[in-house]
């Protein structure tokens, strides 16, 4: 097999007459040496650039305690994305105990008069807790995450008391999926265009990362804090659920999801997830019941219901029907990656290996910047292995193409 | 993330018939069902700088979202499926899938392509595909002709799937290519069963204890565990908690657990004694308990009947892949041609350690001749409970089809579950003896 360069790989994969849409990569020295610059690099998945810039910035901002931690957080995220786990661990260990005095405003009365609480970014706490996952110690990660979660629950309890003290109320079950107390980021729009300017100033960032229970002085802040804490709790819980699914501990995963579902009964995403776990387990009947809830909320013709029914057809061995369903979803929504992916797999299961390969290749060629996802690449490689004589070369080409878009 | 691409698929062994290069390639792969993509999520909180890149968003049906790369969403688990892995293991009674891809890698057409796929085990041959009567007219260069075989693995033996393809080149030359794939079918469950018989004055009771262990590499969802009793016995499934509204109707002995869901039609759903989901992780096991009583009309003969029935187990794995096993019939020990029967007719409510107690045995002469019986105790066979008194004594004459009651003084040496055993009864007249009897188990308590 000849030695392949990225250039050659790109010319082999894409139509040589139409130059493919290249990913734009900003070089590290082209960006502003600030948090904004970091965001730009991160947005392009240029994690090497991110890590390098954080090294420079940590020198520049070393006297600013709050920003140093934000930079540190971004650095650790970058190292994790680059799979440089031992360096990430070093960085984490250097931070020491995140609950120690050095990370509290009260320790620096001269710099932060009248400020209380911790300025550790919440994601940093979570990263520290879940880090054993990246080293294969799933039980330790779970233990840490459960501890963090119970701290969160405790804080939520305290905030609720404060709300009651202020004479306010908080909902027990939340039926509006977009409510402020929902599980997810309220304002995150699905077709979001990345904005180069953040909506938050540095002051805002820092204000909201403090330990919220300490500084709650009125009903409004209390309610906002509750909303934030609920999201934090769900963030941790989702990671816990993910690890349980990974370890085939379906019962534990379902317990958590069912509890969440009781609190958020109109959240059909939860219901769909519950159904999928039942499918993973093999309990088709329970999966169908869960999917019925989804239908009740979104209607039988929604993408969600259709996708779920496609999965049920796969479980029943009806690959043709499943294929038709995913084709229908994709026809109505050509941006739907999972439908396309599943459609390709169903082509395969209906003995049409060629079409499966063609579907995925065309999809990547259509818009490589958006569509070159790891899952798609892996699936296509598996299909190449089965369907092509020169599968090694094709996989190498694909891998180089992927690299050139992901840096 | 690095590019960990799918590992190599084992290609079927190719045994080419001639040295000439072939125009087609045949590839075979055993597949599992598809699986879901699972990705550990990275999420950032709203005000943090990287929040837009790692939002805490819905575990959605994945749609193209700006920077939400690689199926990441809040949960890392959506409806994305991944290409199935090649399975190493094939388990008895589960359906396995084999994809056969016939690819024309040359630049010419091939014609009259016929395919025969056979699966062989030590004992059987299955014809899975046979298109020799209707061969494919033409296979263009660069095109595939594929099959997906789905077959239930019926025997725990070595199997091989052989695919033979005949085709004709443009110049008329016919060629054959044969590829095979070997695999072993293993048993997914291991079953250990114990049968206990308790003989009392009235009908005897038989308990069947079955330990089911998951020997596969993946979790099993136990859809249905059902015992089908033979015609002679009534069975009670002790793996359910009866919820008839009477709380004292709880008939559980050891809290053995099962979530048997085949009575979904019943309004009051019976709770299984297992809590939670009915699934077994790899190498985990569960124990099930069933109780049998001989049916009224068979009461007299019941002691001679050994067939209890069989156990029927059905399970599912990933994406509902079904497996089903039926055991052989369970036979309990019965003594054939038993002429002397001993049962306990009286026994105290409580038995305390190192406190002598008395039981009454009823010794039955089941034959048609008069017997002159003698009871002998074998000290070395009596473990926890000793006879207190003579180690052998005459019982006397017993008429045919009648019985005699004999009191026995016993002394328990140790607490806990003990057997009253280690004695035999012989007939002086005929010389026949009953063999060493295991009379009954008792629970010896400590006195407070």
From TrEMBL, chain A:
SUPFAM superfamilies hit by this protein: TPR-like (SSF48452)
* Keyword entries, A-Z: TPR repeat
Question: What stretches of residues are TPR repeats?
Answer: 303-336
Question: What Pfam families does the annotation carry?
Answer: TPR_6 (PF13174), TPR_8 (PF13181)
Domain of life, per lineage: Eukaryota
- Protein name, per record: Trafficking protein particle complex subunit 12
Q: Which species expresses this protein natively?
A: Anaeramoeba ignava
From TrEMBL, chain B:
> Which stretches does UniProt call biased (Acidic residues)?
246-262
**Stretches the record annotates as Disordered:** 240-276
Report the InterPro entries cross-referenced here: TRAPPC13, TRAPPC13_C, TRAPPC13_M, TRAPPC13_N
A GO cellular component annotation here is: TRAPPIII protein complex
Q: Where is the Trafficking protein particle complex subunit 13 N-terminal domain?
A: 22-185
Which parts of the sequence belong to the Trafficking protein particle complex subunit 13 middle domain?
189-332
Pinpoint the Trafficking protein particle complex subunit 13 C-terminal domain residues: 348-444
Q: Quote the Pfam families the UniProt record gives.
A: TRAPPC13_C, TRAPPC13_M, TRAPPC13_N
Hey, which family's this protein in? Answer: Belongs to the TRAPPC13 family.
**Which PANTHER family has this protein been placed in?**
TRAFFICKING PROTEIN PARTICLE COMPLEX SUBUNIT 13
List the protein's name.
Trafficking protein particle complex subunit 13
- Organism per entry: Anaeramoeba ignava
């Amino acid at each position: 097999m000849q030695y392949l360069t990225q250039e050659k790989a790109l010319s082999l994969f894409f139509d040589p007459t139409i130059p493919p849409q290249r990913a734009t990569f900003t070089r590290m020295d082209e960006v502003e040496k600030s948090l904004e610059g970091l965001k730009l690099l991160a947005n392009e998945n240029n994690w090497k650039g991110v890590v390098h810039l954080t090294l420079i910035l940590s020198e520049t901002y070393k006297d600013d305690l709050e920003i140093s931690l934000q930079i540190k957080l971004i650095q650790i995220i970058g190292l994790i994305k680059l799979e440089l786990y031992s360096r990430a661990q070093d960085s984490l260990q250097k931070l020491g105990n995140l609950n120690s005095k050095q990370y509290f405003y009260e320790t620096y009365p001269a710099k932060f008069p009248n400020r209380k609480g911790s300025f550790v970014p919440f994601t940093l706490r979570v990263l520290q807790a879940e880090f054993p996952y990246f080293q294969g110690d799933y039980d330790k990660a779970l233990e840490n995450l459960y501890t963090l979660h119970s701290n969160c629950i405790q804080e939520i309890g305290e905030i609720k008391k404060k709300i009651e003290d202020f004479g306010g109320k908080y909902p027990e079950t939340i039926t509006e999926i977009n409510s402020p107390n929902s599980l997810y980021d309220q304002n995150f729009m699905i077709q979001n265009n990345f904005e180069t300017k953040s909506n938050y100033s540095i002051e805002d960032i820092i204000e909201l990362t403090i330990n919220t229970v300490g500084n709650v002085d009125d009903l409004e802040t209390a309610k906002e804090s509750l909303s934030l804490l609920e999201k934090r709790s769900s963030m941790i819980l989702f990671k816990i659920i993910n690890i349980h699914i990974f370890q085939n501990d379906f019962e534990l995963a379902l317990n958590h999801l069912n509890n969440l579902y009781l609190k958020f009964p109109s959240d059909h995403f939860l219901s769909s997830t519950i159904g999928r776990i039942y499918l993973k387990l093999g309990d088709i009947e329970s999966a169908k019941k869960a999917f019925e809830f989804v239908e009740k909320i979104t209607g039988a013709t929604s993408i969600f219901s259709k996708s779920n029914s496609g999965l049920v057809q796969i479980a029943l061995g009806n690959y043709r029907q499943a294929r038709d369903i995913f084709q229908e979803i994709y026809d109505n929504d050509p941006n739907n990656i999972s439908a396309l992916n599943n459609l390709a797999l169903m082509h395969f299961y209906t003995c049409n290996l060629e079409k499966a390969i063609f579907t995925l290749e065309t999809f990547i060629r259509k818009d490589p910047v958006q569509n070159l996802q790891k899952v798609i690449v892996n699936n296509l490689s598996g299909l190449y292995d089965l369907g092509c004589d020169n599968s090694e070369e094709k996989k190498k080409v694909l891998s180089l193409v992927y690299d050139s878009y992901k840096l | 993330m690095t590019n960990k691409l799918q590992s190599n698929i084992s290609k079927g062994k190719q045994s080419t018939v001639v040295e000439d290069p072939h125009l087609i390639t045949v590839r075979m792969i055993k597949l599992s069902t598809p699986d879901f993509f699972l990705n550990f999520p990275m999420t950032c909180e709203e005000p943090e700088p990287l929040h837009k890149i790692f939002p805490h968003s819905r575990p959605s049906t994945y749609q193209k979202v700006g920077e939400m790369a690689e199926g990441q969403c809040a949960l890392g688990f959506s409806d994305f499926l991944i290409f199935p892995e090649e399975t190493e293991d094939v388990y008895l009674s589960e359906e396995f899938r084999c994809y056969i891809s016939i690819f024309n890698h040359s630049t010419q057409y091939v014609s009259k392509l016929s395919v025969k796929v056979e699966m062989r085990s030590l004992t059987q041959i299955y014809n899975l595909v046979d298109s020799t009567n209707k061969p494919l007219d033409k296979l263009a260069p660069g095109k595939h002709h594929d099959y997906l075989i789905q077959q239930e693995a019926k025997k725990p033996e070595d199997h091989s799937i052989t695919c033979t393809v005949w085709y004709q080149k443009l110049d008329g030359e016919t060629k054959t290519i044969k590829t095979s794939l070997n695999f072993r079918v293993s048993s997914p469950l291991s079953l250990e069963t114990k049968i206990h018989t308790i003989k009392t004055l009235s009908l005897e009771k038989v308990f069947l204890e079955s330990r089911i262990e998951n020997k596969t590499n993946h979790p099993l969802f136990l859809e249905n565990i059902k015992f089908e009793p033979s015609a002679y016995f009534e069975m009670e499934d002790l793996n359910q908690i009866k919820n008839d509204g009477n709380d004292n109707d709880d008939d559980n002995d050891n809290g053995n657990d099962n979530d048997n869901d085949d009575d979904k039609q019943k309004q009051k759903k019976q709770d299984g004694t297992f809590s939670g989901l009915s699934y077994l992780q790899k190498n985990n096991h569960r124990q099930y308990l069933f109780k049998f009583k001989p049916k009224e009309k068979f009461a007299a003969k019941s002691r001679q009947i050994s067939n209890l029935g069989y156990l029927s187990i059905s399970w599912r794995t990933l994406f509902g892949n079904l497996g089903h096993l039926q055991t052989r019939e369970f036979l309990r020990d019965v003594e054939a041609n038993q002429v002397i029967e001993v049962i306990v007719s009286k026994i105290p409510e409580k038995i305390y350690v190192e406190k002598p107690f008395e039981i009454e045995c009823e010794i039955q002469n089941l034959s048609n001749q008069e017997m002159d019986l003698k009871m002998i105790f074998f000290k070395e066979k009596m473990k926890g409970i000793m006879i207190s008194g003579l180690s052998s004594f005459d019982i006397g004459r017993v008429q045919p089809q009648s019985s005699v009651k004999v009191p026995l003084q016993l002394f328990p040496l140790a607490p806990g579950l003990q057997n009253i055993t280690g004695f035999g009864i012989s007939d002086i007249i005929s010389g026949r003896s009953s063999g060493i009897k295991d009379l009954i188990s008792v629970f010896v308590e400590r006195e407070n």
